Amino acid sequence: MSNASRVVLVTGGSKGIGRTMAEAFRDAGYRVAATYRSGGVPDGVLGVACDITDQGQVDHAFDTVEAELGPVEILVANAGVTKDTLLMRMSDDDWQQVIDTNLTGTFRVVRRASRPMMRGRFGRVILISSVVGLLGSAGQLNYAASKSALIGMARSLTRELGSRNVTANVIAPGFIATDMTAVLDEATIADYTRRIPAGRLGAVDDVAAAALYLASDAAGYVSGAVLPVDGGLGMGH
Question: Which SUPFAM superfamilies does its entry note (predicted)?
Fold first, then answer.
């Protein structure tokens, strides 16, 4: 099937990496929908308001995409949040909000997408993790735990759904230049740049290119993999 026949859903597609991935799939000829909680989505992308911590909203979002475009064949689970603070200051709420969105929310969208993929005997599940899930990061215990758990999720999905031509893979971006990183001070950015073998921050387009590959027919025999997009920052993990 051509790209134009495939339906893609990107969660958290209003800004940053998610928005760029939605644009990249759109420009490659896919039929693309994206969820958002605030703001909007790129032109040519079906926008669906959805908080992935609410199963009812997840079901409504999928129902809308299925009615407008057809069953979701490629799911890019990108939506996530941070609530950074050191362990001794981290509240139960700081922990729970991050886990509810990054891990449980991802579980909800993957579960809703999986049955139509199995029926159609085709599916691509792409989970957006982070180099932090592999390396750890002081002040991000909750975030690191939620992102590392996505690797176990993808590999278990591969064992459950692989015989139905459904793949499940993880992208682990490193330090990517976005609006969130633009507000950091120069010393912090310089420190990260020093630690990255590539000698520069990544671009959102770097992550989008990885997602396009994992969604393609060329990656049909790639499943349960972790694809780092980090300039070498997380090598060996």
Answer: NAD(P)-binding Rossmann-fold domains
Q: Minimal CA–CA distance to 177: which of 20, 9, 10, 24?
A: 20
Burial of 146 (0-12, 13-18, 19+ CB in 10 A): buried
Count the helix, strand and coil residues of the chain and give each as a percent rounded to the nearest 5: 50, 15, 35
**CA–CA distance, 154 with 224 (Å, rounded to integer):** 6
Count CB atoms within 10 A of the CB of residue 113: 24
Q: Which of 176-190, 195-209, 211-225 shows the lowest mean pLDDT across its residues?
A: 176-190
* Domain membership of residue 112 as a residue range: 3-175+203-220
Residue among 223, 173, 171 at smallest CA distance from 196: 173
Confirm whether 143 is a catalytic residue: yes
In a domain, 11, yes or no: yes
Residue 235 lies inside a defined structural domain of this protein: no
- The CATH number of whichever domain residue 39 belongs to comes to 3.40.50.720
**Rounded distance, CA 65 to CA 67, Å?**
5
Count other C-beta atoms under 10 Å from residue 216's C-beta.
15
Evaluate whether residue 55 is within a structural domain: yes
Any domain includes 14:
yes
Record the pTM.
Answer: 0.96
Catalytic, out of 30, 143, 192, 213: 143
- How buried is residue 4: exposed, middle or buried, by Cβ count under 10 Å (0-12/13-18/19+)? exposed
How many domains is the chain partitioned into structurally?
A: 1
